[in-house]
Amino acid sequence: MSPENQSSVSEFLLLGLPIRPEQQAVFFALFLGMYLTTVLGNLLIILLIRLDSHLHTPMYFFLSHLALTDISFSSVTVPKMLMNMQTQHLAIFYKGCISQTYFFIFFADLDSFLITSMAYDRYVAICHPLHYATIMSQSQCVMLVAGSWVIACVCALLHTLLLARLSFCADHIIPHFFCDLGALLKLSRSDTSLNQLAIFTAALTAIMLPSLCILVSYGHIGVTILQIPSTKGICKALSTCGSHLSVVTIYYGTIIGLYFLPPSSNTNDKNIIASVIYTVVTPMLNPFIYSLRNKDIKGALRKLLNRLGAVAHACNLSTLGG
User: How far apart are CA 68 and CA 240, in angstroms?
Assistant: First the structure.
């Protein structure tokens, strides 16, 4: 990083959400509750998958990594946003801003690749059930997850290195609640054509290609389901991918609304609202989607509650006996 870049700006100001000062306390409580729900809900998913041997399958292996990614993704932006709302200290240091951009891109891309891996798993389970155990072996699942981590890391590192070479204007106000890459590029006084090219390339790699793979996978799944003669078989096939399809719809629907729809007069406010859905709401909804629509998860949760109840009952008996 050149000395010019380091001296051009030492910190940025995050304006945060477009809400009135008298509404700060209400929104602080709301977003704090949503963040805690995200963390606790996804930790519960990870715990259930870890404890229940019936959930030691490729589908839930990917789900546990998705839950961990959702926790990390929300933690990149939400705690800083909550701190700014509470203290009204809007500054974020240059290095902190660059780091936040890196981890935001990293976990966003990782989410996309993991969702794609889950779509491939559902495709193999429904379209090639006899070869499922062979195709989705443990080594194959580990390779898919490791590949997702590596590619996401490379994409995020590329954006971060290209961002670090830029110098910024004296006006260092970011009209957002986190260091959004697009907002940072607008503040730069350097040539950002290379950054724009990297964004286009990364969009193809991390958004367009995965979404295309998911569409193809569910196209094959749809054809296979229509060929199943019994209604019971159709319902069973749909139940195995219903939760994942809900997550795919929310995730990519928000991305399309945020990055691909044409701009309007109040684009910035719409971008902030879409970003809130993308970074706060979606990670919070995933545990509910998978728990409410998934019999295996609900069964594992009942087992855990029964086990905790039995332990509590034994502790009460021992206390009374003492």
Answer: 21
Q: Residue for token digits 């090219």? A: 197
Other C-beta atoms closer than 10 Å to the C-beta of 107 total: 24
DSSP per-residue codes, 112-145: HHHHHHHHHHHHHHHH-GGGHHHHT-HHHHHHHH
DSSP 289: H
List the one residue out of 83, 63, 61, 60 whose CA is nearest residue 71.
63
In sequence order, the β-bridge partners of residue 168 are 188
Cross-strand partners of 93: 11
Phi-psi region of 88 (alpha: psi -120 to 50; beta: other; left: phi over 0): left
Q: CA 14 to CA 77: how far, in whole Å?
A: 11
**Positive or negative CA dihedral for 82, 85, 89, 94?**
positive
- Alpha helix segments (H runs only) across the chain: 3-8, 24-51, 58-87, 94-127, 132-135, 138-164, 181-187, 193-203, 209-226, 231-255, 267-276, 282-292, 295-321
Retrieve residue 27's tokens.
């929104």
Residue range 12-65, pLDDT digits in tens: 999 888 888 888 899 999 999 999 999 999 999 999 999 988 889 999 999 999
Distance CA 154, CA 246 (A): 28
- What is the rounded CA–CA span in Å between residue 106 and residue 281? 18
- Contact residues for 270 (Cβ-Cβ < 8 A; gap 6+): 264
**Phi and psi for 11 in degrees, rounded to 5?**
-155, 165
CA distance 175 to 273: 12
What's the rounded Cα separation, in Å, for the pair 298 and 118? 19
Q: How far is CA 309 from CA 50, 212, 313, in A?
A: 19, 46, 6
The pLDDT tens digits of the residues spanning 125-163 come to 889 989 999 999 999 999 999 999 999 999 999 999 999
